[in-house]
Structure formats: C-alpha cells, structure tokens
Amino acid sequence: MMDHATRVGNRLLAALPPADFALLAPHLRKVVIERDSVLVRSGDRIEHLLFPLSGAIATIVELPNGQTVATAIIGNEGAVGLTSALGASHSPATAVVRISGAALQISPAQFLTAQHRSPPIASMVQVFTRSLLTQLQHVAACNALHSVEARLACWLLHIHDRANGSDLLPMTQETLSELLGVRRTTVTHVVSTMRASRALKSNRRGQLEIDRPRLEAVACECYKIMSRRIDRIVSHGAVGLVHGAPARSGSRSPGSRIAGTGS
After folding, report:
1. How far apart are CA 133 and CA 254, in angstroms?
2. pLDDT exceeds cutoff 60 at 199
3. Closest Cα partner for 9 from 137, 103, 148?
4. Binning pLDDT at 50, 70 and 90, where does residue 201 land?
5. Please, where in the chain does CATH 2.60.120.10 lie?
6. Quick one: which of 2, 50, 189, 198 has the fewest CB in 10 Å?
7. What is the pLDDT of residues 75-122, one digit of tens each?
8. Taking a C-beta distance cutoff of 8 angstroms, is the pair 131, 238 a contact?
9. Would you say 72 and 136 are in contact if contact means Cβ atoms under 8 Å apart?
C-alpha cells in the first residue's frame, strides 16, 4: 500500500484519461531509485516497469569486450521496461540511475492486462516508443559525427534537465567514460578543456558544477533538436491520449491522484 496519495508526476501516465489511469492505479507502487543503482541489466528478464517521477536514468549498451556507451536518458517523460508491452520479455539494454529520484512501479503482467482493456494505454506505449527511437537515432548520428566535448555537453544538458534545477551533477569520471564510450584519460582531457572554457565551474570529487549557458554553447545542435522533437512527440501524444477512446471498464476516476496498492 502506498503510504499516501501522490500526484502523478510522470508525463505519460498523467496524460491518460482518468478511467484508463484507474486500470493502472491500484497496481502502481512508489519506489525510490538510488544513484548508480542498476534497474535492469541487458538480457535480463524484465520484472518491473518503472515510470520515473523524478531523477534521470541512462540506458547503456555493453559490448563483449567490456566497453559501454549510453544510448538514451530517460526522465519523467518516459519509462523503463516498457518494451515488455511490445512483446519483449528481456531487456535490450542496461538501465542505470544517474540522478536519484522516485518512480512508479508495476509488473509487466499487470500492465499488459490494463493495456489490453485500454486503447489509450496502448497508444501511450506507441508514444514512448516513438520518443525513444527518436533519441536513439540522434545519439547514433551524434556519436558518429561530433566531438567528444560536444557529446559530453549534450549528455550533461540532458541530465541537467532532469536534475530538479541543481547545477551540481553527481558525475564521476567513470560515469562519464561509460556515457561516452571513451577511456577515462579522454574524459580527463575533455573535462579539463571544458573547465578552461568555464562550461564546467568545478570538478569536485564525484561531482560536476555546470554553467548552463556556456555548456549550451559547447554542445552540438543535437541537444536542442533532440529535446524539441522528444517534447513534441510526448506533448502531441498526450493530447491524443486525452481525446482517445475510453477504457473498456467501469472503473471510477481517480482524478489526478494515485491511491493504489503495489504488487
């Protein structure tokens, strides 16, 4: 049982019509997602779907030789594990929390039961899939065409967007190396260059303090293009969900609050 009712802070869930959200609400459980915790590993069975309310989660691809690279950053505009709604029982990537926060958790079976009864929930899955594919395409192009410095600036901006306004980001050199798919010596050089340009104000142990305007000047155009396109997909998709067909259920409307029990 959730300790108390909480407002819906996830954009996908908040866009659902009340009757459709009511199909999910009894099964949603609020959980804390801690920095550096691994929510699911690549190839593991998806045990839970998570709809972030706050914080930032990176999806990471791990190669056989041990190298890693980030493919997406997910916040309250998205979800983790939602590929299970498309028929995938195992995770295609590793999901790691980069900024602590909170999320609403539900089992795949409970979500699929609600999805089968609700066209808007099924449409919500499509909205997220489009936004995630958009991000994956931009990241692939950015990795191929732009400098490590510009790419780092982009990742830091995406993370800052989900960091509740704090300019102090909990980023170690190991984390940055994992995000960028480069060696730590490269990260050290790039961070030093960005400190010289004052895009990074300081590099405390395990933390980076950013100067947002200067960081935006360093970033390539991918940041703004990707952010605008993802926001447009989620925002336009939300309008469609609100005006979509209602759930095939007589459930009472929960309004804008959750008061359900978790699995």
Report:
1. 31
2. yes
3. 103
4. confident
5. 1-145+228-263
6. 198
7. 999 999 998 888 888 999 999 999 999 999 999 999 999 999 999 999
8. no
9. yes
Q: HSE of 107 in the Cβ direction (CA atoms, 13 Å)?
A: 8
250 CB-near residues (< 8 Å, 6+ apart): none
Q: Measured between alpha carbons, how far is 245 from 230 in angstroms, rounded to an integer?
A: 24
Where in the chain are all domains bearing CATH 1.10.10.10? Answer: 147-219
DSSP 182: S
| Domain 1-145+228-263 indexed as CATH 2.60.120.10 | yes
Higher per-residue pLDDT: 6 or 209 = 209
Which residue is it, tokens 């960005």?
194
Tokens of 11: 């954009």
In sequence order, what DSSP letters do the residues of 197-220 get, joined into one string? TTSEEE--TT-EEE-HHHHHHHS-
Q: What is the CATH number of domain 147-219?
A: 1.10.10.10
pLDDT digits (tens, 9 = 90+) for 119-164: 999 999 999 999 999 999 999 999 999 999 999 999 999 999 998 8
